[in-house]
Input
Amino acid sequence: MSPQKKTTVKMKKVFDRPKSMTKKPYHYCPGCHHGVIHRMLAEQIDAYGLKGKTIGVASVGCSVLLYDYFDTDVVEAPHGRAPAVATGAKRAQPENFVFTYQGDGDLAAIGTAEIIHAANRGEKITVIFVNNAVFGMTGGQMAPTTLVGQVTTTSPQGRQVATAGPPIRVAEMLATLDGAAYVARVAVNNIKNYKVAEKALKRAIDFQLDGVGFAFVEFLSSCPTNWKMTPQEANARVANEMIAQFPLGVYKDILAAA
Amino acid sequence: MSPQKKTTVKMKKVFDRPKSMTKKPYHYCPGCHHGVIHRMLAEQIDAYGLKGKTIGVASVGCSVLLYDYFDTDVVEAPHGRAPAVATGAKRAQPENFVFTYQGDGDLAAIGTAEIIHAANRGEKITVIFVNNAVFGMTGGQMAPTTLVGQVTTTSPQGRQVATAGPPIRVAEMLATLDGAAYVARVAVNNIKNYKVAEKALKRAIDFQLDGVGFAFVEFLSSCPTNWKMTPQEANARVANEMIAQFPLGVYKDILAAA
Amino acid sequence: MAKRVLVKGNEAICMGALAAGCKFYFGYPITPQNDIPEYMSAHMPEVGGTFIQAESEVASINMLLGAAATGARAMTSSSSPGISLKQEGISYLCGSEVPGVVVNMSRSGPGLGGIHPSQGDYFQSTRGGGHGDYRVLVLAPSTAQENYDLTMLAFDLADKYRNPVMILGDALIGNIKEPVELKPYRRKIKPKDWALTGAHRRPRRIVKSLFLADGELTDHNWRLYKKYQRMAKETRFENYRADDAKLVLVAFGSVGRILKTSVDMLREKGLAVGLLRPITVYPFPHQAVQEAAERTGHLMVVELNTGQMVEDVRLAVEGRAPVDFYGRPPGSIPTPNELAKEVAKVWRKRGLQ
Amino acid sequence: MAKRVLVKGNEAICMGALAAGCKFYFGYPITPQNDIPEYMSAHMPEVGGTFIQAESEVASINMLLGAAATGARAMTSSSSPGISLKQEGISYLCGSEVPGVVVNMSRSGPGLGGIHPSQGDYFQSTRGGGHGDYRVLVLAPSTAQENYDLTMLAFDLADKYRNPVMILGDALIGNIKEPVELKPYRRKIKPKDWALTGAHRRPRRIVKSLFLADGELTDHNWRLYKKYQRMAKETRFENYRADDAKLVLVAFGSVGRILKTSVDMLREKGLAVGLLRPITVYPFPHQAVQEAAERTGHLMVVELNTGQMVEDVRLAVEGRAPVDFYGRPPGSIPTPNELAKEVAKVWRKRGLQ
Amino acid sequence: MPKVVVQKELCKGCGLCVDACPTKNLAMGQRVNAQGYAYVVWDKKAKCTGCAICGRLCPDIALRIYKEERK
Amino acid sequence: MPKVVVQKELCKGCGLCVDACPTKNLAMGQRVNAQGYAYVVWDKKAKCTGCAICGRLCPDIALRIYKEERK
Amino acid sequence: MYFDVIFAGFGGQGVMLMGNMLSVAGMHAGKQITYMPVYGVEMRGGTANCTVVVSDRPVGSPVVHEPVCAVVMNRPSAEKFAPRVLKKGMVLVNASLVDPKYVKARTKKVIYVPCLELATEVGNPRLGNMIMLGALCQASGVLDVEQVVKALPKALDQRYHKMIPINTEALRRGGRFVAEL
Amino acid sequence: MYFDVIFAGFGGQGVMLMGNMLSVAGMHAGKQITYMPVYGVEMRGGTANCTVVVSDRPVGSPVVHEPVCAVVMNRPSAEKFAPRVLKKGMVLVNASLVDPKYVKARTKKVIYVPCLELATEVGNPRLGNMIMLGALCQASGVLDVEQVVKALPKALDQRYHKMIPINTEALRRGGRFVAEL
Ligand SMILES: Cc1ncc(C[n+]2csc(CCOP(=O)(O)OP(=O)(O)O)c2C)c(N)n1
Ligand SMILES: Cc1ncc(C[n+]2csc(CCOP(=O)(O)OP(=O)(O)O)c2C)c(N)n1
Ligand code: SF4
Ligand code: SF4
Ligand code: SF4
Ligand code: SF4
Output
């Protein structure tokens, strides 16, 4: 190309661990998306300058050690109850950014009532829902979101619709609630989906910071360990089977609708 | 008209207390629809010849004394848990007709998780959901279905969307679940709606008897006492406000759809 | 002079809570304590506080956990079946050392039972109905005034020990109306150096009950244990005509106050009976009971159940004196006469004069 | 001869349940008992039974209520936090007299705690962590064989008393693998004349815990109380080298078995110690403990908590003998040496020889 | 002619049947039953068709309805 | 030229970055870290654009990425 | 001074309000008070009663089995509570609803108050309870009728304050009825 | 006869399977057995160990602090468990991964087994655990190597039965290695 006059070339760090994370290496399994989702959230906390005004609500699941990684205030909720804990925290500290981070066992099984009612009350919280179609932490049991036919430790014959019902699509269900302001489903299995996910996450944060209301982002996630797959195979399952059962998209956005 | 030869005129009882009910007078308040809904269900139990093969699952609410009125086997479930109790009962006694009878506090508040998962598992039970927009038994507190602005003993300023969220529309929410086979909302405030309701109830029974799956009928109901209205005013509220918020109709019928 | 108002026991609790700076109430209706959420729904907005009717008891105890973790004074209330559902949450509050006030206006059980007053939840309250080795401070008021006073105290003790405090009343204590002197709350609420308020210009804070590192959980449990031992100094009880008594009755809450009338009746008939009424049932007034046993040689426990607190009395007495027991399962309210008769029976049986 | 297989403690429970005709299992995963739902999910279909992974512990105890109300043998299992959530349901089972087996492979608390073995749920199990005056029979196995045998017994006792029966194990009892002799189940299951099966050619039946008529609830509670008293005859315990002991240790479950090795060690050193291991912790072997106290004059309780069963021992002993206590909160598993040292300390402190 | 029998001890005087009757054959009565409720009366019988709408909408199953049967 | 630094003790060798890199600059390495994982290497640097896609899709935040800056 | 009374009747007869009003008035008169409501076992309908204790000393039991006084507004209440009244006590009976033959008391002091008639006389047939409360004060002397009147603004919710005059009249009418016996 | 052993190593080294196989074989040899798994505190990854007690009498404690024997498959395990072994006991060390300098034992009897090399020799480098188990039997005499071989069909899941021959070979190779020391 055309020569340029007097340009200083300096190396600039364009990508690194977010400031709002601790230095601790993850305990997650190789290829597990929890790590990506954590980092994406932490990046946004950095971007919005929220490190000093965040209260994270950890749930019980593989991500129970969330507080080891996020260098923010964190309260640990009993299994399934993060939305209730976040309700209390956010009402008491409205000026703080309050998020929950929950797995599908946590949010879609034991915590069904809590998520529905927090959504319907329009609590101004941001919910990160990590749907990996399995109970990871406890060793790979069937989740409400387990795919039909998927073998887990409690569906050794593969999930049977006749006895266990079909997988629940949480985003669709929550979107029917008038109280929910933003509901989206995203994935991080490739860069295209990743970028859409990041946008959705930002919007879910905006909705809270702007006081619009309850915001929910469902991340399709992988669990190579309990799916008994390589990280690559697991990513392929997300791309093929998961997205087919749980279509990506924005299911509700009361501002866009208006 | 043309004279008829030799007709014997005999009085035939065309309407009376169903056989599957006891003689006990209801304890319900004057004008309360619980009584109508009970009777409608008992009539169908008679019609289908199910008196000897029914297990009723009573919930906690004004209808907790269900067993005083239904002359069938009855088990009393803890508040909100009737769908779980019914799941156990039906799985153990598949040849019996198993129904739950639940109020909106019971089903849409404390029992949210149980109804959603029973529906999604496709339990072959029939759920009678009586939505009177209030906690009747405990003295008229706000329910998840309480109308916006409605004054109750725990929403003395009228239900505020900002703090309590809008009313939940349960039928719509359950209809999103792939596991639910039949979902309808009906009312018994006038004979027209009553007849539609009866049809829906029959279909909800058919769905169980034919082994099709989970069937749910939401009855809009009145609570003159806690609405602080005459029975007439209460019926008018059902006609005007309730139906506007909770539109009547069949929200799902997997057989009709097929 | 403090204002004197006639209020329902349940309302006195609310007034005490509001006076003590409680700004967060989370609850789910259940008889016989519905006055509490009802009062709070009307009055919380007036003080800029938050009232939420939760979707369940489980949700409400966890909302309390969330609000209290930020340092706010928060309360929840329920009655027996609802309190059972809160047990996991209470265990978490203890495990993560989050203060909070839990009111149990208990009713009769087991199961759905009924709405009569009952003392059937004594074990649950004092031994921790949830999992693990933990204790909550349990205050057992017997008058509307005590409801008011002890609720204020409950918030202070909760903060002091970073532990939930339970108010254990029953359908009688919640529903009687009595004059209450609305003494103003004067104590200063200290800032909480562990509360989650956003890690602005300070290291972040964590509120949790999971302890994974080697030995960490054992240490944590020992620390909690020592804290529970320290709570002993909060022991409170009332002696009623007990000084010169030859038979001391031990009873708490509703039965405690009914027995005062029985004591008066029996005293009129010349029976030197007295009453020791635990006000804190955890910590239990072991020493006072032991002293009463040694002083009089005869104790009698009366409860609205088939025998729960009597174990604490026996543990305190350790065979030093006979401990008689009159228990009555719930389903009705015993009258002073009935109880007096039972006491008189024991008086005779033991050959007292 | 009965088949001998090497199985995990958790699995032994499942095998016992299936042998005893359990056809319904409802549960929700939680460590350290996941082998139970996993085993049941694989094997229930083989026997034409039902396995449901419920949406929660609350749902699973209520599914059990529904299935057992029809007369079926049904089981649920969980671990500490999950058991806390079942407390309301357990109270209902007792109140409406529905049998059922509830397994608690307890872990450490309070709160989330950890997954180490723990005996922190002793109070919850034996006093009823739910509301109201009720009791569940509590069996405390210490070997995989006992897991198998006692689970079969649990179903029988549940039916006999129309009451839930709890198996109280812990992370150790659930996870060890040991040979188990699969003795066949031979008892005949009696038809249940109260079960809901459809009111065909018989008057309808009601299963409930609500009693509204005057005095009805009181009567019901008295009836339950008498039933709990009758359960005393189910008391079971094991004496290990206790006959000639000068110091008798009292411990149950995992600690009970570890202590056997400690006893052997101490005996080798010439210390005449023995062990009394309650197998039923409710009903508690009061009389056996009392006799041991009288015979030896010295008892010592060892628990994996900071002191729960020791209350039952003190209540039994009532001051007749000193009761020493060594408690250790969960977080690690005590070894026989460590415990032997603690016992030796007491031996010396009490001047025994 | 059809016949509507009011079981007066069951009637709670809510009046819903009065509104419901398409031919207005029912009316609130003056007399009070043992429960203290002024029960309904079926008086203007003339136009009754035995449609049983009143019965269906009565919350308290207080109405028993007969109709002629031709053989 | 951009630069990708692999923090080898963080890498778990899942290989997702290898797949993700549009210009295939990363490869699974032969060496094992203290955790026992064979970590990735950024070796075929020629075509690296510093797009940081690898970094974004790495579950373990094991990649640090630099780019030239012209002033 | 010690006085206790059970008020009993149907749900809608304002029985609880009577007890409440006596309690508020008693408190303002400087007494110790306990008011204890008891609802029927049935959730809906049924009878209700409450017990009020007025005393100079702190009140032990809010539960009274054999009261000094019973105010019975309907027949089931009369049958249940009249016999329990102490021999030295008194029973006030709503004569408009209760036939004397259902009143079996140990005490001789049974006062029949035609509540409905007197209430209709003052202009509101629903104020039978106020008539009765006036009568109770007059007959027992537990408080002065005027002490109750004075407490009306405190005992009644703001939105019923326009009813104070007619309530006052009813209380006084009840009192007068007894005074004129 | 009483014998106890702690097997310890990384998650993927088949440590639990060793314990299991010894247990099954012991049971079939008519012994009393307790197998006790201990997972690391972390849920994912980390180290794992299990304790097996083999005895003629019922086993009291499944927990052993100072074992008769330790089988250490990696360095952290060697550092943790080797020093705990009784003076009269023995330590078996996976020489392929553990440098002798990390093995500090009270007992003199420390046996270094080149698991990886021997396993590679028999044709499957992942069978280091079977090599070690054979070595353990031979060294301790707790069971005969052939007793373990005989138990393979019971100890291995049906779907791994095709692996029995190679496992047999690995067990024997481990045994031979010790015998030839
Ligand atoms: C009350 C209670 N029940 C059950 C558990 C056990 N438990 C812990 S995590 C979990 C589910 C984990 O699955 P998920 O929420 O999908 O998260 P993941 O581990 O897959 O990220 C369960 C059942 C618990 N800790 N508490
Ligand atoms: C665990 C528990 N929580 C609360 C209650 C109290 N309770 C009884 S019924 C009820 C709600 C009644 O409302 P709804 O279900 O709408 O029925 P309705 O009475 O209106 O017919 C409540 C909260 C209870 N019995 N158990
Ligand atoms: S078990 Fe699954 S969800 Fe949990 S860390 Fe591993 S891969 Fe991730
Ligand atoms: S309170 Fe309402 S729901 Fe209950 S019986 Fe009365 S009118 Fe019906
Ligand atoms: S609808 Fe029934 S209860 Fe109501 S007035 Fe008519 S007959 Fe009476
Ligand atoms: S994605 Fe991350 S953890 Fe995976 S191989 Fe690449 S650098 Fe390593």
